[in-house]
Amino acid sequence: MRILVVDDIGYSRLFHARLLQRLGHETIMAVDGREAMSILRRDPTIDAVLTDMLMTGIDGLELYRQCQSIERLDDTGNSLSIPFLLMTAARPGSAQQKDLERINVAKQLGFSDVLFKPITADDLERAVKKLTQVKSEDEQDPSEIRAEVRATIGRLVQRFGKQNRDLVVEAIHESLAEEGITAATRN
Predict the structure, then answer these.
(1) 20 to 30 Å CA-CA from 21: which of 4, 10, 85, 153?
(2) Domain 2-132 adopts which CATH fold?
(3) What is the pLDDT of residues 37-55, one digit of tens each?
(4) For the chain, what are the domain ranges?
(5) What is the pTM of this model?
(6) Strand, helix or coil at 84?
(7) In the sheet that 48-52 helps form, which strands lie side by side, from edge to edge?
């Protein structure tokens, strides 16, 4: 996954980005909510956002609200939303009432999870896995699968450039062959 890490505290931003990288994710970093919005507007390949709750300027909650105005569509025209993970140094047992209210608002807004600092690699891995959990076979809609595959291919072509489209297609065919999937075996 490509994950945007947003925190106005430099060492915290770098620490969490490195944890995600060690878990196999690609990270992009933003120093505040304003920079994060700029990145989100111009980079459609971001899969998720990990943001601090309290930041100067645009805080994590406001970043989430503003991000909802960014229109992202899959290949079938369906709206896509970016999952958000909120991190905070506030602790439920010792946090001020204002911080507890913010955490509750985050949950009501639709944040996928709230992580309490200090965040471990296990904490991050669990939270990101929740974002990527595959539906059971009974719940999978073939049109959703097709749309996701098309969107993924579109992101790959956009990332590597149209001039490398044939290489992207070749890599996909090789990956399918490694999985034992050919045109004759797909049904």
Answers:
(1) 153
(2) Rossmann fold (3.40.50)
(3) 999 999 988 999 999 999 9
(4) 2-132, 137-178
(5) 0.68
(6) strand
(7) 26-30, 2-6, 48-52, 84-88, 113-116
